[in-house]
Design a protein that fits this description.
The protein is an all-alpha fold. It has one domain: Helicase, Ruva Protein, domain 3 (Orthogonal Bundle). 79% of the residues lie in helices and 0% in strands. The protein has four helices and no strands. Helix 2 packs antiparallel against helix 3, helix 2 runs parallel beside helix 4 and helix 3 crosses helix 4. The radius of gyration is 25 Å and the shape is elongated.
C-alpha cells in the first residue's frame, strides 16, 4: 500500500512539475513577444518623431506611463493612416498630448443636495 501511495504521489509531483514548466515556457514566449512588439514600436516612433519630440515622450513616460502608452499608439495610428505630417515635431506632440488629455480628463461634476 505504501508503494502504491508513493507511486501515486510521485506521479502527481511529475504532472505538477510538467504543468509548471509548461506555464514557465509560455510566460517566456509571451515576454519575448512583448519585447519584440516594444522594439518594433520604438523603431516606428524613431521614424515618426523628431529627436526633441522623442525626448519629451521619454521624459513623460517616467511620470505617466499609461498616458504615454495611449499617446504612442495614437501617434503610430495617425502616422500609418497619413493623418499627420511627418516627422511629428515637439509642438505637434504637445498638441496631440493636449487633445488626448482633454479626452481622458473630462470634468465630472457631482452635486450634493442636503435637505
Amino acid at each position: 500500500m505504501s508503494e502504491e501511495y508513493d507511486a501515486e504521489l510521485e506521479e502527481i509531483k511529475r504532472r505538477k512539475l510538467l504543468e509548471y514548466q509548461k506555464r514557465l515556457q509560455e510566460a517566456s514566449i509571451e515576454e519575448e513577444r512583448r519585447k519584440q512588439e516594444e522594439l518594433k514600436k520604438q523603431e516606428l516612433l524613431r521614424k515618426i518623431l523628431t529627436p526633441k519630440a522623442r525626448e519629451r515622450l521619454y521624459n513623460l513616460k517616467m511620470v505617466k506611463p499609461q498616458l504615454v502608452e495611449a499617446l504612442e499608439l495614437q501617434i503610430i495610428q495617425l502616422a500609418s493612416t497619413g493623418r499627420v505630417k511627418l516627422p511629428i515635431t515637439d509642438d505637434d506632440l504637445k498638441r496631440l498630448l493636449l487633445a488626448l488629455m482633454d479626452n481622458v480628463h473630462k470634468d465630472i461634476k457631482i452635486r450634493y443636495s442636503f435637505k
